[in-house]
What does this fold into?
Amino acid sequence: MRPRAARCKAGDNTIEIKVSNTWANRLIRDMGLPEDERGTCTTAPLNLLQGKPLLKAGLEGSIKIWQ
It folds into this structure.
């Protein structure tokens, strides 16, 4: 983490964190939407995902920024 601190400059700095989700989670979510509102299209057998809980995704735990 320390090497990134060298990239900060005096004054305002912006930190951008991009988080992605799993394809399975997107498919599970889309299955609950009307077909015309779904953002995915696949030939995978979706019945295998039906009723499954979402998988853990995103940031887990605390995020700390040191000065």
Observations:
- Helices lie at 2-5, 23-31.
- The CA atoms of residues 9 and 67 lie 11 Å apart.
- The mean pLDDT is 81.
- The longest helix spans residues 23-31.
